[in-house]
Amino acid sequence: MVETFHSLQGEGIHGGRSAFFIRLAGCNVACSWCDTKHSWPSEAHPQRPAEHLAAEAQSAAQAGAAFVVITGGEPLHHNLDCLCTSLKPVGLPIHLETSGVDQLSGCFDWICLSPKRHRPPSQALLTACNELKVVVHEAADLEFAVAMAAAANRGKNKPVLMLQPGADSKAGSSIAINYVMAHPAWRLSLQTHKWLGVR
Which H or E run contains 137? Predict the structure, then answer.
């Protein structure tokens, strides 16, 4: 368990909305551009009871949080059944942010899949996701994003498709903007929390 905090969702289709974040420890996907590398080693962070996290989520709901986000690290390295069960009585929609490399556990109202080219997701996560958000640094990332969208669209959800330029990547910004302008099924995701200086 790395941290919990109440802030604004900074990116993706729910960007700008009040949210309570639960950041879990552990990640072996190891993206070079990751901005939460401190979350990678599970052993560096203490475990916390799910009911304590649910109590914090309840307080955040009373303070205006519109939903709960379970993120990481890679949250699906853990079985999330117990955590989701504890959170359900709070009454907030439960969102998941994942790279999709592990088996799905838990029950979610919204799944944001952010697949990585060096560790592609399972087809099960591709067909289960509500939002497909691919980080773009170079042309190969765009090719990967298009392939992931084709695979995801074989599911029943028909996810929202989003391209997100890598942080400080001018090439990624240009590629993503030009592609979204010419392909109306896609949207641009920006990390607005970094601009605003919020968590």
Answer: none
**Inter-CA distances, 114 with 20, 130, 145, Å:** 19, 11, 10
Whole-model pTM over 0.90: yes
Q: What is the architecture of the domain spanning 3-196?
A: Alpha-Beta Barrel (3.20)
Binding-site annotation, residues for [4Fe-4S] cluster:
27, 31, 34
Q: Are strands 131-136 and 160-165 parallel, antiparallel or unpaired?
A: parallel
- In terms of Cα–Cα distance, which of 183, 144, 145, 147 is closest to 163? 145
> Which residue ranges are tagged as binding site?
8-10, 23, 27, 31, 33-36, 71, 73, 114-116
What are the pLDDT digits (tens) for 115-169? 999 999 999 999 999 999 999 999 999 999 999 999 998 767 799 999 999 988 9
Beta strands in the chain (DSSP E): 3-8, 18-23, 67-71, 94-98, 110-113, 131-136, 160-165, 186-188
Which pLDDT score, from 0 to 100, does residue 153 have?
A: 84
Residue positions in the annotated binding site for Mg(2+)?
36
User: Which amino acids are annotated as binding site for S-adenosyl-L-methionine, given as ranges?
Assistant: 33-35, 73, 114-116
State the angle between helix axes of 170-182 and 139-152 in degrees (0 to 180), rounded to the nearest 10: 40
Which is it for the CA torsion 30, 168, 45, 128, positive or negative?
negative
